[in-house]
Every structure is written in structure tokens, then in C-alpha cells.
Design goal:
The complex is a heterotetramer.
Chain A: H1 5-22, E1 30-34, E2 46-52, E3 55-62, H2 70-74, H3 79-86, H4 95-109, H5 115-144, H6 149-168, E4 177-178, E5 181-182, H7 190-213, H8 216-222, H9 230-236, H10 241-245, H11 252-255, H12 277-300, E6 320-328, E7 331-339, E8 347-351, H13 353-359, H14 361-364, E9 368-369, H15 370-380, H16 384-388
Antiparallel strand pairs in A: 1-2, 2-3, 3-9, 4-5, 6-7, 7-8
Helix pairs in contact in A: 3-4, 5-6, 5-7, 5-12, 5-15, 6-7, 7-12, 12-15
Chain B: H1 2-5, H2 11-23, E1 25-31, H3 34-44, E2 55-56, E3 67-71, H4 79-88, E4 94-98, H5 100-104, E5 126-128, H6 135-150, H7 154-159, H8 163-174, H9 192-199, E6 206-207
Parallel strand pairs in B: 1-2, 1-3, 3-4, 4-5, 5-6
Helix pairs in contact in B: 2-6, 3-6
Chain C: H1 26-39, E1 43-49, E2 53-58, H2 63-72, E3 77-85, E4 120-128, E5 133-141, E6 147-149, H3 158-169, E7 172-174, H4 200-204, H5 218-221
Parallel strand pairs in C: 2-5, 6-7
Antiparallel strand pairs in C: 1-2, 3-4, 4-5
Classes of the chains: A alpha+beta, B alpha/beta, C alpha/beta, D mainly alpha.
Chain lengths: 389, 214, 233, 360
């Protein structure tokens, strides 16, 4: 992969920072810690960085301020109870957290949701992605100092929350998935309303495109900052838009066989060669547009039929282990479910996307200005519940 | 303010101070978990706009904040940070605990790393139940807080003992005092044991949509 | 990129276990043979679900060399690394009814896929993004000395995962750069994810048991496995 | 109507003679009003109402009809706040910092004329004094940043120092063009030249320098945006990085003084910009048949301030509009923009004005 000159520049900057670290610092560096409560971090992430003037020489994020011990709690709960717990991990697109867990349980029980349930699951999955990423696009402005875009984001996000609430009852912790299908069917008139709302979201993407992405100051702040080449991204396990921005053409919705109906719609996986902050945000914008396309296409292909397969009332999942991961709004989220035939799982390993996405921060923040720390963190886009589980 | 401490502030001036304190509430956003998004929807979205109630979400540092909205799960590692930031806020300060995680630990009641309720750390004025509570519930919580501030007695707030506030809220329920604190009929002398009993008790926290916690 | 498997039958057709006739999954056998050529007999046990997933268990000493061999074979994407504790929890799985007499908890350690001898196991997952295939590697952690070799020099991402595994299970990783606590405060004693770590809140106030569902009308009556006291939902 | 009345009874309206002590009281009261009224008006009108309407919200509605009493509530509340100071802060200068910033606003307003006789001081070197005094607020900000013993404030203070100095140069050079064209540094004289001159013979519109000095006007407004540390240039109070820059440790009444000073400075700089580029308190003298400052009617002393305020609110509207919609520069981009773009442009503008001055 040919390194663009911007990538060389960023290498040189980080090497310079390294060199400075080894050489005896004549100016006594200042240790600044951003967080744990800081307007920029989405919640309680604390970053300790040693500065030389305005340049960060060494940075280390301290996680754990939102650690609620999910994996221990799942061991003392039954399967339906775990879904209530689990959709609070990535609290912005929270329907998307339940799906991989339910699919893993269904794989263990070797049952499959009826086609209607699969299509509705995919639609709700994409709607929660739109809700998640639309707030990201609005919040990007606040990180850079422009106050207005976040209000647009919240205003248009309300349409999607109304839809999810209409279908599932909860604004954004729906708990709508059951092993073997969905809790119940879509309400009447929901499909037309969804079409209207998704059209509004496409307009929102266009306004953000020229209001924020078209702004020269925004571009000058984002382009060429925090460049992550593909091999280092794979080494750290970056996933989702962060990986695709470094040129890795990999999208779990297309590249693996899971019983969600992504093959019914035709949509495109966007990648970007640069791997800088601008690429990551730009790809998320295009992905929101793709999600809108997927939802509009799938809305016409909802097959008739039941929403739930024949499943005993109290579910005992047979013994075995299963791994299912899906393309969540933040990246690849996977569940490794070990069941010993009881009512609840024996062990659930939750592989959340932001944990790996943030593990690259010590590498990415070396030799960077203080304002760029905020830019890179904003473009990596993490949710605290996802990091700390 | 000497006048305030000794409680000899004239009533109309107290009313004016209370009004100004309730209409210009600068809030410090303490977004922790999912409730932070609902708080953001309440503070920062055109649909549930909180600025029209006079709550201004501008300040970025606790020094300029009047009330803090603790929204989300408070873990044991986060508790000292919550405590320190509460102490950094200048004195007439209030706190809203939003969401069942902040109220009592919520769905993580049996977790090994979650503080069961933020009121173990800071005194809370209004509890907003829900997981996450809808933005309207938070707005109702703020309106209830504003009402409490309007009927508040400055002297008690500054002297820190909640005797007169508790007495007034009880009196209001008993119908002796109308909403603005003026006595409807003959004032009852506060007996010493009433004062002593009141000193030991925290003010009745308001719970949005429910009676005070038994 | 055409979806991976050419045959269209979804692999977990209800009820059908992998019939012998189903064509073996060439890709995964190839991976195992390639790995065997590198580390030979260190592969203790493997399990394939055709066109779905692949588990390989290696001996404890070959943990680092397996990682290296797989990385060279194209598995460059580091997914995750964590631990497993196979001892059933002495406090029961809180599914029983609190009113019944507490039956003695079974302490018989039964490992999951690809077996194992010790109580603790370390498992990791790597993926090859071009061939869209992932592999889960397991290794036993010797009971007497809970230490494994660290992958952090092989995959930079493993650094944080190993720190989390260390604080949750107490499994050490030698030549790991800094094995501090990832999530828990410094002075936290005990390893939470071990099965013998009690959840105190549950000790004080037991969960009202699994008795949560009142019996469905007649046709479910036969299926309900055990009589339940529908005291409160 | 008034004009005929004045003509018939010349002696009824005596020559404008007010005892000296009354004039000085009027000047002091006028100074206070000229600084605090715009501050209050801007905070309410733009920060609360315009920002909310730009974000399709209502803004404060509870305090008084349409939230008009919100300012009273704000001042009332800030007075009741506890007077905190960080533990190892340098108390004496910590308390002095906000007053210095407010002081520089009052020093600036002194030079702005509001009418033929309605001015506070009539320096011959008015604009020169204004620009010199304008940099006093930098001291206040640096002191605030240093004395509050907090890393964020220190970073914020140093950034503010660098930025304000970097943007004073373009402002000075922009006013240089105006001074060359008006051939005087006295603001009243500049206003007179603007309202009497004409461009290539078209006289009825007067010659506000915004037309001939448009580049100078743009540079001046950008420099004002930076002097006020507002949005595209709000590195010193970058919420997302430095919590709230040099104001982090201030609370209670001191923060209110900083808050008022910030908006009062916006008002005062807009007054100066209106005086320099938009014809100040005057309307083109052609309309009333005056041809120089001397015979401007006495009632202009009352109408002048109203015109000045409308022009000020127009300019502040533009400043605030930019503030609420632009993301923020990075520190080094901000400096390069000042040194490598604005200053050369301002120098070119001065050169062109000088050449045209000689040629025409």
C-alpha cells in the first residue's frame, strides 16, 4: 500500500516525539489529564498525557470509570434477562447489541428466526445504526466548537427514536429480541412512517455534509490528523468505520453468513485510502446514507408469516459454545457464549468494538497537538459503556 | 451575608432572590451513561428544550454551575471524582439524580463495582426514576426543583440546617402555609423536640411521579 | 466479494447435525494442516463446524508460536483474548428456587469444546479479513502456575486484553510491558470473573428465583418441565 | 417641526450651555450606559434568543414575558453565589483579573463619539489611543490564567496572550487605511469625512469607509472576532479541550464580571467599527443641508446615540452569527492565519489606500 506523503509526515511527527522522549527533556514536561469528567470525552474516559509545550509526548487512556462488570452479571442471569442487560453496552444504538447475542443463542439451539423476523431485525438494526451515527455526526461539530450541528442531530434523531419506540416500546433500550424471533409484530402504519422518517434522515445527512464537512476550518482540522495505516489497524483490531477508513475492505454485513437479510438489499461498502480523522468521519457519513438505502429497500420486502418460531416457554439452551459477531455502529461486536445446558449462560465473553478502537490511542496520540487529541478521539468515536463493559 | 444568616431578610427580598435563583439555573452536565443521552436530548435538542425553563447548559466547569444532573451509573472508581466535583461547586447548589442507576444502582444492583445510588456520595434534591427516564421526566424534575427553590428559605440554605425548609414543606402539606410560604392561620411555635427531630432528618426528597420514598 | 460458502444450505438447519455427506470444509482443514506443519504435535484437539467456525486447542508452551504461525498464515486481524474458568460456581447459578433445600453444588470441572485438563483456559480469536475466516485458539493454563506467554509483542492489541484477563482471572502474562489493572481500582482484591468470587449483593438479598412465569394454558402444561410456584412474576 | 421652532425662538433655545458639573455627571452616566446596556442587550438578544432561534429552539421564556427578565434573574443569582478561590491561587491578582478586563472596556468607550457634542473625550489622536488601550485586556486574561493555579487556565491564558497580540496587528493596520483616507485620527473628524465626502461625484450617500475600505473592514471584523476570543478563534476558552480556559476557576460575581466584560468588549469594538467604517453617529449630512461638523443641529446629540446603537447591534449580530456557526481553528492554524494572511493583506490595503490618496 503506497504511503501518501501525509502518512510519512505523521510518522515523522511520532518518531520525533519518540526521540524527544528518549533524550533528556530539558523543559520539564507538564502532565495534563483530560477527564474523567471532560466535555470532550463521551462520558468518563480519562487520558493522562505528558506535554512538551502544546505537543503530546506520551498519552495513556485510563478506562474503568464505567466498568459495571457485565461478564460477571451475565453468569447469574437467564438468557432473556441477559438481553435486557446487554443492550445497555453501546447505549446509542442499543438494539444492535442484542442481535449478536440472540443469534449466538439461536445458533446453540440450532433454531432460526422466521424470515419476517429476520427482515424486521435487519431494519431495526439499521435504524439503530442511523440513530447512533447521526448523533456522532452532530457531536462532531461540538468537539470542533460549532454548537449548531448537534441540535440538528438531536432534532432528526427524534424521528428515528419515535419509530423504534413505536415498534418496540422503548426509546432506545428496546429489548425487543427473543430467542427464536421477536417479541411481537410491527404496528399498523409503521412502514409508511419509517419511509418518511428515513427521507428526513437523508436530508439531515446532506445538511451535515455541506454545513460541517464542507467547512474549510473543519477540513483543515480533520485532514491529515491521526493517520492510522492498515497493518497497524489490523494489529490493534480496529473494526468498523475506523478499519474501512484505513483502506481495509471488510464489512461483516456482507462478508459472513448470519441469518440477517442484508443480501435482499443492494448497498455499497465504502473505504477510504487515507486513514486520517477526515476519512473516518466521512465514511460514517456515507454509511448512514447506505443504511437509509437499505431500510427503504427492505421495507418493501417484508415477507408475511409469523414473527416467532415454536420455542418452549422456559428455554434451556443445549450445551456448547458459539461465537457470533455483527457489524455494529461502532465496529465489530461479538459474543462468545458458553452454555452448560442451564437456563442462563455459563460464560459470555463480550467483544466490544470500542475497547480495541481505543487501545490504539497511545500509539495515535504520540507527537500530536493538544487540540488534535480531541479531534482524533472524536473521529475514533467510542462509547464508554462499550470500552468498560 | 449576615442578614441572611440570621434569617432577618425581609420576605419580598427572599422571594426575589429565590425567583432569580430558580429562573437562572446554570447546569453542569455530568453525563455518565445512557441517561446522558436522554439528558443531552433534554438539554440540547429543540424538541425538549430546557433553556426555555431558564436552565442554561452553557458552563463547562463546575465552578460556574448551580445544579448538577448526575445521569448514569456511578461506579466505585468514579465516586471520588463525583465527590470532588460536587465540592468544587459554589454554595447554593442543587443536585438531580437521573435514572435508576444513579438513584439506586438500577439493573446493576448486584454488580461488584457499582455504587448503589449516588445519594451515598452527594445530597440529592430530586430523583428522576426510569432507565433511561424520558426527557419529559427530566423536565418535570427540573420544574419540581424550581418550585422547591422558589419556596426555599435562604437562611436555612446558608445555615445548612434544613429545619425551616422541612417545617415549611410539612406545613404546606398540612395546609397551614400556602404556596408562597405565607401563614394561612395562627403560626404554631416550633417546640424544641420538633427542632431536634427535624435536625436529624434529611429534607424530604421529591420523586418525580411518585410519593416521597418510604 | 461473494459470500464465503458456495453451498447455500444454512449450516444450522434445524435438527440436522452435520451429516457425514456434507462436503468437508476444505478451507478450515487446510488451515489446520498448515498449522500442524508449523507446530506439529502441539495441536492437541480441533473442532470444525463446517463453513461456520473452527476451534483449535494447543499445548501451553506452544501458545506464542501458534500465534506467530497463524499470523504468518494470514490471520493478521486480532479479535480478542480472554480467559475461561470451567469450575461451576459454588454459589449455584441462582436459578434454583430459594425455598427448596440447597442441593450440594457439583464441583466436577467439565471443559467445553476441544476439552482440556486444567480449571483455567486462555482463548483468543484471530481473523483473516481476505478469506473471511476466523479461528478460536485455546490453551490450558497450568493449575499450579497461572502464567502464560504474552502476545503483546505479536499483536499490539493484545496488550489491553491481557491486562483485563490478568485482573479478571489472575492469569499472569510474562514479558508483558505493564500488567496493571485495566478496569478495577488499584486496591481491588480478588479476581471478579473467577467462579468462586461471590456477588455480595446477591448474598444479602437472594434473587427471587427463576419462578417468573405463570403456567401457560393447557397445551403448555405437558411441556413445563418442573412444577413452579407462580408466587409473583 | 423642531427645526422651525428652534429657528423662530433662537434665544428660547440658548446656545448649548450646561453647567460643567452637570456635563461631567452626564458623561459618567453615559459611559456606564454605553458599556453595560450593549452588554446586557447582546447577552439577552443574541446569546439567549438568536442562538436559540438559530437552533430552532425558543430560548428562555419563563422569566418575564418572552424571558425578558432573564438578565435580572442572572444578575440576581450570580450575586448570591459563594465567593470561591482555589487553594493555592495567588489571591490578590486572582481578584484583580476580571476588573482589569472590564477596565479596558471602559477605557475604550471613552473615545467613541455619540453625537457632535455628545462625546466623552474629544482626543485629537482618538483611534491611536483606542488601539493602544485595547491591549490592556490581554493583561487581565494572562493574570487570570496564571493566578488560578490550574493547568487548564494556564494553557488557556497563554493561548489567549499569543492570540490577542497576533490579532492586534491586523486591527491596527486596518485602521491605518481609514486614518489615511480621513487624514485625521480624531473619531469625530473621521465621521465627518465619511458623511460629507462623495465617491466619484455621487454625493447623496456620503462616503462610509466600508465601501472604499472594504478589505480593511473585513480584516478589522476578523481581528475583532479574534480579540473577543469568539468561535472560530475561541481557542483560549475551548470548552472541549481546556474546560473553560482562563475562566475555569472563576465563580460567582467574578465570573459575572468576566461574562459581562466579554460581551461589553464585543459592544465597544462594534461601536468603534461603526464609527470607523459605517459613518458613526451621523447620517449623510447632505440630507440636512449641513456641510461640516460645525453646523450640525443640536438635536443630533439625541438622535446620534440611537443611530450608533442600531449600527452597533447590526455589527454584533454578524459577529454572533459567525460565533454560533463556525468550528474552531487549531492553535497553530490560528497563528499562521494571522501572521501569514491577515497582516500582509492589511499592509497591501494600506499601500493601495496611500497610493490612491496621492493620485486622486
Amino acid at each position: 500500500m503506497t504511503l501518501t506523503d501525509r502518512q510519512q509526515l505523521s510518522y515523522i511527527a511520532s518518531q520525533a516525539a519518540d526521540a524527544r522522549l528518549n533524550v533528556e527533556l530539558e523543559t520539564e514536561g507538564m502532565t495534563l489529564n483530560i477527564g474523567p469528567q471532560h466535555p470532550a470525552t463521551h462520558g468518563t474516559l480519562r487520558i493522562i498525557c505528558r506535554l512538551d509545550g502544546e505537543q503530546v509526548v506520551w498519552a495513556e487512556p485510563v478506562a474503568g470509570y464505567m466498568h459495571r462488570g457485565y461478564e460477571k452479571l451475565t453468569e447469574v442471569r437467564t438468557f432473556p434477562q441477559v438481553t435486557t442487560l446487554v443492550n445497555r453496552i453501546d447505549w446509542l444504538g442499543s438494539f444492535a447489541n442484542e442481535v449478536p447475542f440472540i443469534l449466538a443463542a439461536e445458533k446453540l439451539m440450532e433454531i432460526e428466526a422466521p424470515p419476517r423476523a429476520q427482515v424486521i431485525r435487519t431494519i431495526l438494526f439499521e435504524l439503530s445504526r442511523i440513530a447512533n451515527v447521526s448523533l456522532f455526526l452532530g457531536d462532531l461539530g461540538v468537539q470542533m466548537g460549532a454548537i449548531t450541528p448537534v441540535f440538528l442531530a438531536f432534532r432528526d434523531r427524534e424521528y428515528i427514536l419515535n419509530l423504534i419506540e413505536g415498534a418496540t416500546g422503548g426509546r432506545f433500550h428496546p429489548n425487543f429480541d427473543r430467542i427464536g424471533g421477536l417479541k411481537d409484530d410491527l404496528p399498523k402504519g409503521w412502514i409508511e412512517e419509517t419511509r418518511g422518517a428515513v427521507k428526513k434522515l437523508e436530508q439531515f445527512c446532506d445538511t451535515i455534509d455541506d454545513l460541517l464537512f464542507g467547512n474549510e476550518i473543519f477540513q483543515s482540522r480533520m485532514r491529515g490528523i491521526g493517520i492510522i495505516p492498515a497493518d497497524i489497524a489490523k494489529d490493534y483490531g480496529l473494526s468498523g468505520a475506523n478499519a474501512r477508513a484505513s483502506g481495509i475492505d471488510w464489512d461483516l454485513r456482507r462478508d459472513q453468513d448470519i441469518p440477517l437479510s442484508y443480501d435482499l438489499a443492494d448497498w455499497k461498502v465504502w473505504t477510504h485510502p487515507d486513514g486520517d480523522s477526515w476519512a473516518r468521519c466521512w465514511i460514517r457519513l456515507q454509511e448512514t446514507r447506505e443504511s437509509c438505502k437499505i431500510v427503504t429497500q427492505l421495507l418493501d420486502q417484508i415477507p408475511a408469516g409469523p414473527v416467532m418460531t415454536k420455542v418452549p416457554r422456559i428455554i434451556k439452551v443445549p450445551e456448547g459454545e458459539a461465537w457470533v459477531s455483527t457489524e455494529n455502529p461502532l465496529g465489530e461486536m461479538g459474543y462468545y457464549v458458553v452454555s452448560k445446558g442451564g437456563l442462563g449462560p455459563f460464560r459470555v465473553k463480550i467483544r466490544s468494538a470500542s475497547f480495541n478502537n481505543i487501545s490504539i490511542v497511545p500509539w495515535a496520540l504520540k507527537g500530536v497537538y493538544v487540540p488534535d487529541v480531541i479531534t482524533i478521539l472524536a473521529s475514533l468515536y467510542f462509547i464508554l459503556g462499550d470500552i468498560d463493559r | 451575608m449576615g442578614l441572611v444568616d440570621k434569617g432577618r431578610l425581609p420576605a419580598p427580598l427572599t422571594k426575589l432572590f429565590n425567583m432569580s435563583r430558580s429562573y437562572s439555573l446554570w447546569v453542569y452536565q455530568w453525563g455518565l451513561a445512557c441517561c446522558a443521552i436522554e439528558m443531552g436530548a433534554a438539554f440540547g435538542s429543540p424538541r425538549y428544550d430546557v433553556m426555555r425553563l431558564g436552565v442554561i447548559p452553557l458552563p463547562a466547569s463546575p465552578r460556574q454551575a448551580d445544579f448538577v444532573c448526575v445521569s448514569g451509573t456511578v461506579t466505585d472508581k468514579m465516586a471520588p471524582a463525583v465527590k470532588r466535583l460536587w465540592e468544587q461547586m459554589p454554595e447554593p447548589k442543587y443536585a438531580i439524580s437521573m435514572g435508576s442507576c444513579a438513584n439506586c444502582g438500577g439493573p446493576y444492583w448486584d454488580s461488584y463495582s457499582v455504587t448503589k445510588g449516588v445519594d451515598q456520595i452527594i445530597p440529592i434534591d430530586v430523583y428522576v426514576p426510569g432507565c433511561p427516564p424520558r426527557p419529559e421526566a427530566l423536565l418535570e424534575g427540573i420544574v419540581l426543583l424550581q418550585q422547591r427553590i422558589k419556596n426555599e428559605d435562604m437562611a436555612a440554605k446558608w445555615r445548612g440546617d434544613e429545619f425551616t425548609t422541612l417545617q415549611r414543606t410539612r406545613a404546606m402539606e398540612a395546609g397551614e402555609v400556602d404556596r408562597d410560604g405565607e401563614l394561612i392561620n395562627e403560626p404554631t411555635e416550633p417546640t424544641p423536640e420538633m427542632a431536634q427531630a427535624a435536625d436529624s432528618v434529611q429534607p424530604e426528597p421529591i420523586v418525580v411521579g411518585g410519593g416521597p420514598i418510604e | 466479494m461473494a459470500p464465503l460458502s458456495d453451498d447455500t444450505t444454512t449450516q444450522d438447519a434445524p435438527g440436522a447435525d452435520a451429516p457425514a455427506a456434507l462436503p468437508g470444509d476444505g478451507l478450515r482443514e487446510g488451515i489446520i494442516d498448515n498449522l500442524r506443519s508449523h507446530i506439529g504435535d502441539a495441536i492437541v484437539d480441533t473442532k470444525i463446524t463446517p463453513n461456520d467456525d473452527l476451534w483449535i486447542r494447543v499445548s501451553t508452551e506452544a501458545w506464542l508460536s501458534t500465534g506467530q504461525a497463524l499470523k504468518d498464515a494470514g490471520f493478521t486481524y486480532f479479535c480478542f483474548l480472554s480467559g475461561l474458568d470451567w469450575m461451576p460456581s459454588p454459589y449455584g447459578t441462582s436459578e434454583e428456587d430459594p425455598d427448596d433445600e440447597p442441593k450440594e453444588p457439583d464441583t466436577e470441572i467439565v471443559q467445553g469444546y476441544t476439552g482440556g485438563e486444567t480449571r483455567f483456559q486462555v482463548f483468543a480469536r484471530l481473523a483473516d479479513l481476505d478469506r473471511h475466516v476466523g479461528v478460536t485458539i485455546k490453551a490450558d493454563v497450568p493449575d499450579d502456575r497461572l502464567v502464560m506467554e504474552s502476545w503483546s509483542h505479536l499483536f499490539a492489541g493484545a496488550n489491553w486484553h491481557e491486562r483485563e484477563c490478568h485482573e479478571m482471572y489472575g492469569i499472569g502474562f510474562d514479558n508483558h510491558p505493564d500488567l496493571r489493572n485495566m478496569y478495577l481500582p488499584g486496591d481491588f482484591e480478588g479476581y471478579p470473573l473467577r467462579k468462586d468470587f461471590p456477588l455480595l449483593a446477591r448474598m444479602v438479598k437472594p434473587w427471587p428465583g427463576i419462578v417468573d412465569v405463570e403456567p401457560m394454558p393447557a397445551e403448555d402444561e405437558a411441556e413445563a418441565p418442573v412444577e413452579e410456584k407462580g408466587d409473583e412474576s | 417641526m423642531l427645526a422651525q421652532l428652534a429657528a423662530e425662538f433662537p434665544d428660547f433655545w440658548p446656545e448649548w450651555s450646561i453647567p460643567y458639573w452637570l456635563m461631567s455627571i452626564l458623561r459618567v452616566v453615559g459611559g456606564l450606559v454605553a458599556v453595560l446596556l450593549p452588554a446586557g442587550g447582546i447577552v439577552y438578544l443574541f446569546l439567549f434568543k438568536m442562538m436559540s432561534f438559530m437552533q430552532s429552539r425558543l430560548g428562555p421564556m419563563e422569566a418575564g414575558p418572552y424571558g425578558s427578565m432573564q438578565l435580572l434573574a442572572e444578575v440576581g443569582k450570580w450575586m448570591q453565589k459563594e465567593d470561591l478561590a482555589p487553594e493555592n491561587a495567588d489571591l490578590r491578582i486572582y481578584r484583580m483579573a476580571p476588573l482589569i478586563v472590564l477596565l479596558s472596556t471602559f477605557l475604550l468607550i471613552v473615545v467613541v463619539p455619540f453625537g457632535p457634542q455628545a462625546w466623552f473625550t474629544n482626543f485629537e489622536t482618538g483611534i491611536f489611543y483606542a488601539l493602544a488601550v485595547g491591549s490592556v485586556s490581554v493583561l487581565g486574561i494572562l493574570i487570570a490564567g496564571w493566578s488560578s493555579a490550574n493547568k487548564y487556565s494556564l494553557l488557556g491564558g497563554l493561548r489567549a496572550g499569543g492570540q490577542l497580540i497576533a490579532y492586534e496587528l491586523p486591527m491596527v493596520l486596518a485602521t491605518l487605511g481609514v486614518v489615511i483616507q480621513a487624514e485625521s485620527m480624531n473619531l469625530n473628524r473621521i465621521i465627518e469625512v465619511q458623511n460629507t465626502g462623495e465617491i466619484f461625484g455621487i454625493g447623496w450617500f456620503g462616503n462610509p469607509f466600508i465601501i472604499t475600505q472594504f478589505v480593511g473592514f473585513l480584516i478589522f471584523m476578523i481581528a475583532v472576532q479574534a480579540e473577543l476570543t469568539q468561535a472560530p478563534f475561541d481557542m483560549p476558552i475551548a470548552e472541549s479541550e481546556l474546560v473553560s480556559g482562563y475562566m475555569t476557576e472563576y465563580s460567582g460575581f467574578r465570573f459575572l464580571i468576566f461574562f459581562i466584560a466579554e460581551f461589553a468588549t464585543a459592544g465597544v469594538f462594534s461601536f468603534i467599527a461603526a464609527a470607523l467604517f459605517l459613518g458613526g453617529w451621523g447620517v449623510p449630512f447632505e440630507w440636512f443641508g449641513w456641510d461640516n461638523l460645525g453646523d450640525v443641529a443640536w438635536w443630533m446629540n439625541f438622535v446620534g446615540p440611537v443611530i450608533m446603537f442600531t449600527k452597533m447591534f447590526a455589527l454584533v449580530g454578524v459577529i454572533m452569527w459567525v460565533r454560533f456557526s463556525y468550528p474552531r481553528f487549531r492553535e497553530d492554524q490560528l497563528q499562521t492565519f494571522a501572521w501569514k494572511v491577515l497582516i500582509p493583506l492589511a499592509l497591501a490595503n494600506t499601500a493601495v489606500t496611500a497610493i490612491l490618496k496621492v493620485v486622486l
